[in-house]
C-alpha cells in the first residue's frame, strides 16, 4: 500500500497540482489541513479536494487557516495572514466554506498492515495551534505521544518536514505543499510504502512548480506582496 501525506496547501493551486501529479496513483492520501490561507486559489483547491474525497480514500483534517476562514476566527493572526483570511471569506463560495466547517479536527487511519495513524494539524494538545518543530527536545515529543494511542502521529502546521522516532512510534510532518518554510521553495510531500518496514518506509520528496504563476495570482488579487515573495525563498 502506498500512502501519500500532504499538508498546508494554502490555496497554492500550482504547487498542489505539481504534487498531485506525483501522488495521484497512491492508494490513500492523508492531508493534515490548511487547504486555504495565504494563496490566491482557495476555491480551486477546495473544490478539487471535495471531488477527490467523493471517489477515493482522501482524508483531511481542519487546519488553523481553514478554521479562521470558515468561522471568521482570525484573532492572533499576523496582518498578512489576517488580510488573506478576510479576502478568502469574500471570494470563496458558500459550498466551499461549508466544506471547511465540516472538516474534522482529528481523523484516524489504519493501513493494510494494521498500523494506525492519527491525523491532526497542530498537536493532540492543541489541534489547531501548537507547532511541533523538529528542534524541540525529545522530552516534548514523548509528552505529545502520551496523548496518542495510535502507532504514528501525522501533523502539519510548521511547514517543515520532520520524522521523529520515539521507540517504535513516529511523528511525521510532510512539510508544506503550498508554502514551504525550510529554505527550499519546492513543494513538499511524503510517501509511506507499507511493503517496507517502518521507520524506513517514509520518503520525503520535493517537486518544482510554477512559483511565478502562484506569486502573480497573489499580487493580482491585491494580497500583500510579502505573501508572493516568500514563495521564492521557501519561507
Task: Spell out the key features of this protein.
Purple Acid Phosphatase, chain A, domain 2; single chain; 10 strands; 8 helices; 235 residues
Which architecture of the domain at 2-104 and 173-233 per CATH? 4-Layer Sandwich
Mean pLDDT: 97
Classify the beta-strand content into a percent band: 15-25%
Please identify the top-level CATH class of the domain at 2-104 and 173-233. Alpha Beta
Provide structural commentary.
By secondary structure, the chain is an alpha/beta fold. It has a domain at 2-104 and 173-233: 4-Layer Sandwich (Purple Acid Phosphatase, chain A, domain 2), CATH 3.60.21.10. Helix content is 35%, strand content 20%. It has 8 helices and 10 strands. The strands form 2 sheets. Strands 3-2-1-9-10 form a 5-stranded mixed β-sheet. Strand 2, helix 2 (42-55) and strand 3 form a beta-alpha-beta unit. Helix 3 crosses helix 5 (94-102). The longest helix has 14 residues, at 42-55. The two termini are 33 Å apart. The mean pLDDT is 97.
Compact overview of the structure:
With 235 residues, the protein is α/β, with parallel strands linked by helices. The chain is built from eight helices and ten strands.
Element layout with pairings:
Blueprint: E1 2-6, H1 13-23, E2 28-31, H2 42-55, E3 58-60, H3 64-71, H4 79-91, H5 94-102, E4 106-110, E5 116-120, H6 138-145, E6 152-154, E7 162-166, E8 169-173, E9 187-193, E10 202-207, H7 211-220, H8 225-233
Parallel strand pairs: 1-2, 2-3, 5-6, 6-8
Antiparallel strand pairs: 1-9, 4-5, 7-8, 9-10
Amino acid at each position: 500500500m502506498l500512502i501519500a501525506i500532504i499538508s498546508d496547501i494554502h490555496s497554492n493551486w500550482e504547487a498542489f497540482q505539481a504534487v498531485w501529479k506525483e501522488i495521484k496513483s497512491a492508494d490513500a492520501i492523508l492531508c493534515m489541513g490548511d487547504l486555504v490561507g495565504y494563496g490566491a486559489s482557495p476555491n480551486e483547491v477546495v473544490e478539487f479536494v471535495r471531488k477527490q474525497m467523493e471517489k477515493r480514500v482522501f482524508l483531511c483534517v481542519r487546519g488553523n487557516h481553514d478554521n479562521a476562514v470558515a468561522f471568521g476566527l482570525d484573532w492572533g493572526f499576523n496582518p498578512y495572514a489576517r488580510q488573506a483570511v478576510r479576502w478568502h471569506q469574500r471570494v470563496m463560495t458558500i459550498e466551499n466554506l461549508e466544506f471547511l466547517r465540516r472538516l474534522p479536527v482529528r481523523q484516524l487511519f489504519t493501513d493494510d498492515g494494521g498500523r494506525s495513524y492519527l491525523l491532526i494539524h497542530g498537536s493532540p494538545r492543541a489541534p489547531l495551534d501548537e507547532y511541533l518543530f523538529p528542534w524541540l527536545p525529545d522530552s516534548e515529543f514523548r509528552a505529545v505521544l502520551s496523548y496518542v494511542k495510535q502507532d504514528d502521529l501525522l501533523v502539519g502546521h510548521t511547514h517543515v518536514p520532520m520524522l521523529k522516532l520515539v521507540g517504535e512510534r513516529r511523528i511525521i510532518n510532510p512539510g508544506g505543499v503550498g508554502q514551504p518554510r525550510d529554505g527550499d521553495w519546492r513543494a513538499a510531500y511524503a510517501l509511506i510504502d507499507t511493503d517496507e518496514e517502518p521507520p524506513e518506509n517514509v520518503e520525503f520528496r520535493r517537486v518544482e512548480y510554477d512559483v511565478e504563476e502562484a506569486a502573480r495570482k497573489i499580487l493580482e488579487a491585491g494580497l500583500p506582496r510579502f505573501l508572493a515573495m516568500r514563495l521564492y525563498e521557501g519561507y
